[in-house]
Amino acid sequence: xxxxxxxxxxxxxxxxxxxxxxxxxxxxxxxxxxxxxxxxxxxxxxxxxxxxxxxxxxxxxxxxxxxxxxxxxxxxxxxxxxxxxxxxxxxxxxxxxxxxxxxxxxxxxxxxxxxxxxxxxxxxxxxxxxxxxxxxxxxxxxxxxxxxxxxxxxxxxxxxxxxxxxxxxxxxxxxxxxxxxxxxxxxxxxxxxxxxxxxxxxxxxxxxxxxxxxxxxxxxxxxxxxxxxxxxxxxxxxxxxxxxxxxxxxxxxxxxxxxxxxxxxxxxxxxxxxxxxxxxxxxxxxxxxxxxxxxxxxxxxxxxxxxxxxxxxxxxxxx
Amino acid sequence: xxxxxxxxxxxxxxxxxxxxxxxxxxxxxxxxxxxxxxxxxxxxxxxxxxxxxxxxxxxxxxxxxxxxxxxxxxxxxxxxxxxxxxxxxxxxxxxxxxxxxxxxxxxxxxxxxxxxxxxxxxxxxxxxxxxxxxxxxxxxxxxxxxxxxxxxxxxxxxxxxxxxxxxxxxxxxxxxxxxxxxxxxxxxxxxxxxxxxxxxxxxxxxxxxxxxxxxxxxxxxxxxxxxxxxxxxxxxxxxxxxxxxxxxxxxxxxxxxxxxxxxxxxxxxxxxxxxxxxxxxxxxxxxxxxxxxxxxxxxxxxxxxxxxxxxxxxxxxxx
Amino acid sequence: xxxxxxxxxxxxxxxxxxxxxxxxxxxxxxxxxxxxxxxxxxxxxxxxxxxxxxxxxxxxxxxxxxxxxxxxxxxxxxxxxxxxxxxxxxxxxxxxxxxxxxxxxxxxxxxxxxxxxxxxxxxxxxxxxxxxxxxxxxxxxxxxxxxxxxxxxxxxxxxxxxxxxxxxxxxxxxxxxxxxxxxxxxxxxxxxxxxxxxxxxxxxxxxxxxxxxxxxxxxxxxxxxxxxxxxxxxxxxxxxxxxxxxxxxxxxxxxxxxxxxxxxxxxxxxxxxxxxxxxxxxxxxxxxxxxxxxxxxxxxxxxxxxxxxxxxxxxxxxx
Amino acid sequence: xxxxxxxxxxxxxxxxxxxxxxxxxxxxxxxxxxxxxxxxxxxxxxxxxxxxxxxxxxxxxxxxxxxxxxxxxxxxxxxxxxxxxxxxxxxxxxxxxxxxxxxxxxxxxxxxxxxxxxxxxxxxxxxxxxxxxxxxxxxxxxxxxxxxxxxxxxxxxxxxxxxxxxxxxxxxxxxxxxxxxxxxxxxxxxxxxxxxxxxxxxxxxxxxxxxxxxxxxxxxxxxxxxxxxxxxxxxxxxxxxxxxxxxxxxxxxxxxxxxxxxxxxxxxxxxxxxxxxxxxxxxxxxxxxxxxxxxxxxxxxxxxxxxxxxxxxxxxxxx
Amino acid sequence: xxxxxxxxxxxxxxxxxxxxxxxxxxxxxxxxxxxxxxxxxxxxxxxxxxxxxxxxxxxxxxxxxxxxxxxxxxxxxxxxxxxxxxxxxxxxxxxxxxxxxxxxxxxxxxxxxxxxxxxxxxxxxxxxxxxxxxxxxxxxxxxxxxxxxxxxxxxxxxxxxxxxxxxxxxxxxxxxxxxxxxxxxxxxxxxxxxxxxxxxxxxxxxxxxxxxxxxxxxxxxxxxxxxxxxxxxxxxxxxxxxxxxxxxxxxxxxxxxxxxxxxxxxxxxxxxxxxxxxxxxxxxxxxxxxxxxxxxxxxxxxxxxxxxxxxxxxxxxxx
Amino acid sequence: xxxxxxxxxxxxxxxxxxxxxxxxxxxxxxxxxxxxxxxxxxxxxxxxxxxxxxxxxxxxxxxxxxxxxxxxxxxxxxxxxxxxxxxxxxxxxxxxxxxxxxxxxxxxxxxxxxxxxxxxxxxxxxxxxxxxxxxxxxxxxxxxxxxxxxxxxxxxxxxxxxxxxxxxxxxxxxxxxxxxxxxxxxxxxxxxxxxxxxxxxxxxxxxxxxxxxxxxxxxxxxxxxxxxxxxxxxxxxxxxxxxxxxxxxxxxxxxxxxxxxxxxxxxxxxxxxxxxxxxxxxxxxxxxxxxxxxxxxxxxxxxxxxxxxxxxxxxxxxx
Lengths: 319, 319, 319, 319, 319, 319
Hints:
Six copies of one chain form a homohexamer.
Chain A: E1 40-45, H1 60-67, E2 88-93, H2 101-118, E3 121-126, H3 132-139, E4 144-149, H4 170-176, E5 180-190, H5 198-206, E6 209-212, H6 213-219, H7 221-232, E7 236-242, H8 264-272, E8 278-285, H9 296-313
Parallel strand pairs in A: 1-2, 1-3, 3-8, 4-5, 4-7, 5-6, 7-8
Helix pairs in contact in A: 1-9, 2-3, 3-4, 8-9
């Protein structure tokens, strides 16, 4: 266990004291002397330029850092700290550009390309869901599988007269660009009224497995996750967790809430069901603090990010 | 499909742009040139003069309109738009009188009598639950059945020394006035501490079927809805959805919340379970924006109103 | 039925009128002429000096009193008022000292010692969880069993360099002081990341039965409560309900929320599952109004306090 | 100094502890053994049935009581406690009827008639502004003068087709009923857009002195108050303080806010300028907690009520 | 007085009833049968793609419409309705594109070009301050003067490495493009810490008159407005009112608040000081509802829009 | 100008990106390689164990850091950056102990003793006002003068039966301990109801100059500050700014608000009036985020901290 990479304990220093970093880990931005020792890194992408409705996800990383002071280091079921086994830190935020969509996509891609080259596996806090596209561009050399927790497919063709880059289109683009292997892609928690069925039709034609929330509720989360693990197998996958997967009673702070979703307990079950897969990167996106008076959404986001890391590090078998 | 009666799509015009109407449908108030083409209509009754505790439901219709910009036109399970099959619009608000209870009841009754005569089936946003009484007076010529989703029976005799018209009494009055057939009336989701058992005793003596939330949770929503459909049969029914049916974690913005209620997922199951019945009118009441810091209650209300319309239009068999 | 000890009815006086007391019961502080007639008493302990993270539980009793105006007198399942069978009142708040931890612990102990001597069974509103320690000191002559609903064990050894009295340590102290019998102690709902496993190890070594939330969800609340009743038997127990037992979507207003918890429906099931046990005192702690924009947490707290009283009075068999 | 009538000191018992009464004074409702010793009384009228726009003033008295725990007993300028010179208490709330406007007006009138007979001078917390009408009916035998702090004249003829009793009409009615002497009536702080000039024309024709906020700001509050004192002289007057007199940045929690108003400092200057007049009753109305996220409006309301009492008791000369 | 163009009165229909339009005026979008009769129009531009910090101004028009239900038709000082003298309506929102900055600028420009051609003078609700640039492009054929109420100059050269279009740069661009005559431009209320002095230096070199808030407070608003009127003379001017001109205690709901600003009373004085100038268009921008828990910012925005119209219509001499 | 000690510019990196430090300055905790180069330092003391009423100031430093991202580096009047002339950084938080008052006082004292020895002048964010006592203990070798902006004297003898250490007593203790020279101590902005006159009497007897808010408003802030500078002269002084100096409309997020206070504009005038004095340390205390729904209080706090630094560095003559 590397002492440098341990989080500050709330038993020693109160959680409300000190600078906010993800999980109270050390801050190790690119260029830091400990950069080369990193195995994993929490990253923020404070950008919401792809948002078609309610903005605010640009403020997500900061609030998730604040809330993550609540997260202690030992996992309640595994009874073990992920930081005992690997070196992880807060890598800071990608320096995005709120005044230009294209420039921001390039900046994000470059940051993740560097991570990929340096062998650091990222767990990202968004930002809106469009950020997953440049993350994949930077991270992936050949098509990866994906498990996506979301109430929307984000497979739309375009908005507002053919505009191709919004938070409703990243995975359409990712499939088109050969970043994702649609036959090893599973979308879980889909629900809510739809513009039309164009996104669903596209996904189906490509072989994406789509699990509507009704199926999820009827079969149970562990059962669906077992199927998902079978579909993605042991080849590399990316995991994308849109906070609107969770019901808005739990996570009101998001831009496009859809009622009738899973509980936070089910969200934890879902992420824990990733154990045994081969995750090369993960994100948790769409936390929008201005729409969350009590801050509970960011707490779910922080907990999910911790669980994502645990799923990737502590074991390789489902719990 | 009548082009005039289609909602504005969020793929074309952002959801936050333009005037707020229910579901972004056209505004067709009485006297409008398209009035005679209407099959269904969303109506607001911004009135809370029957409220015995926390007021604010008078502001419900406006916030539900705002939130309904989130609702797209295609149902996620049926994969079909209700607006493809029938003409529906926002009929505006009934011009109620906050300074006089009796006058308001008369204004509401008159509005719905006109709808009844013109063959328009209403889906109403309240307002407090007392509004269902004048709606029934205007809408119904002979006793109808009812499926009521609610945490309270609203069957009390009177308040504050015998005052007969409050949001705790509408269905006592409706039974007394011959508007409701109690033997074809089902109340689902009842819970919470009670003043006494006078309302329950009355309902039982009249033959009302009362499903406490404990029974609902144990048997499951689809199972209870199957029984409800059997009880009401195929004769005309009215559907009344009090937002306090849903647990206050999901719907805090209401005047008389009761903990221990169903989730929004269960609420959707419940409304979808209406398919196959013969609904002559429906309402969603008691959304009180001042008690809802994040606005999630109105989003549930708007979604429920959309599902009510779908249940009444898209098919006649349970899903 | 003693008329003096009946709550004010919302059918007679609106719930928002009049002074706020617990459940709108009469206010009977020590020294009151009716003191000697009391069987039970609701008490407030407005103190949060043991809080290691977000404070505010000192404001809990006042907000719970306000919210308790929503609670009527008749239990929805038993269809009976607990106040018909016994004399209960609002005993006021213990006069604590926010400027001194030790002095406050002594003041609380003294208050409960008097209750114990006068044969009044308390249902307390906290305050943070450290208050349970002086309550037990005042109330208990020999070790009692305990059923604790909580997301944390509160069995830690100390904080911030060995400080022994915080809301994370009361039950470690209570076991050490011989106030609790650990083999008749059941902790239900445990979850969330941990500093280490020191608290769990201590509890296990002492024979405490710990039910993690995952077990609770899988087995169901009634099933776990049946086991709990078996463990504690019919000898005296204390019941401690930390509001963070409930998921923060339901109860955001608390200092140390942990996601993935039970619903308010499950909370009611849990408290109702106490029927048949021999409860000599109960509390509901950690409601922190400043972190609860919509006030729903206090409503759960008030309802739980009512259910606790019902579980202790109306019957002795599980429902 | 009568010990019984002293408020609880925050130096002894923390302000957040104990039951909420106005200014932490003893609770002395009608029938109480100390009733006959009272000189003054704080009263709540939790009623908003006259509200034409945003409701919620029915919750005003409770929140003002809570906030009044902030108010200590000694006036900062006079350096003296009003409770040293006279007996004052919290008389509780008038038991109004939210389901009936006429019945409520009668209940309020009867309560104040009793106060008048028993020689108790009331300082009232509303409730909406219509409550001043029945207060005057109960309190006054012959026309009194009035100093009214308000952004509206409340002199309108009627609403919604001739309805005569709303919070926009009380002083029209009071003049018509001979309760107010319009030539000894001063309205201060008027502003905001108007329906028409009918109210202004009526007031002018009756001799009411109306001070628009522009004049108030230009001349200064003490200067205007000097004129007001000259107009009302030493004969009996009533004082009515609508919280919307204060700018909504200071007092957002009200039903009909008008921007461009005085500060809370100016509000204190205004009330202190009453010293030397002959006040037979006073109220502070229109605090609506649901529209006040931070509770500051109620704190202004509580402070104003304290200053009203001081203006009436501690001295008879302007400061 | 044209009956069609009169707002709905709150004396007839409660303010919370009916669809939300600016000032409750009729909705007359382009193509409407009454379009050609319009003299003035309230327009919404729901776009915040130029925002460098906290977003949300895209939601401004909707909330300003809602709040504008508070505004009655008669001006409190002039005692006259602006709608008696001219035809004004709600023209709806410009259909902007949240996914593309350039496309949005073009859409806004086109809308205002049409207004200019059709002789309709716009009073616009933003949106962020970048929208004023395309408004000017559409509205203006030769350089106009400007009176700008703002805490920032918005004269910066660029952001984030030379990006030229943000809400911090519109007037730099407008001067460069020959839309504004800098020597007839007055900026009032400037304050707050600065990145550097580049914007100030540019403005000064061009002849812009900049009134810091310190000068405004010392000299008084009417005195500064008199100077401003002298500077701009009687040739055409545009008026731009950034809501962050007002102190954030009054207007917290904005993206870049600066403390130490004017009151809402001073804001009204400022707008009223425009009377006598030759205004060819006006806007009120930067209201961001997600940062305004009590909604007071939008009420100021709505009142300012009403006062802007009055200043442009009711008279031509300063008050 | 030392490049290392420059804040991150919002023109380069958006304000919402990156870790939160005071004013976006580098984080230089004790032991950091650049520590010895420091002239000034922003410090947090996240502790509220001296609070007698509403807690939460422990969360102040974190929220002030977040809000301080709004503060740019150049002062609007001086047109110069304080960071151009001296080295300043964020020194982090003092590691306090929420479970023990005495231990916390010692930890704070030790931290400031180190600063004093190392020649670093601190600008501190509290925390409640009791923290000023250990700051003075650590910082001061002989009695210093003080200018205190506050609505309370904080000169009380004790609370709750003689407890000597609360946020109402620090300056009584500081005078008793010889840390403060009362004859060179000026308290500005005092107001609000009082427990008694014991604190005022003590202060007067010691020679403290107390300026009530009424005097401040009548004379103007610059005039009072001129007197204050004369009283303290050029010998060392400490400056303590309690955020409750500002009116609660501006700064609601504090534990003990008093209405009728100065505006934020007047607060800036006050701090700027310090120029020319010899300040050896300063603090800004009592920001309590849980009571501040819109976050404006922390923005005032951050701005005041920036102005304090400017007053201490950029010039030595009043503006």
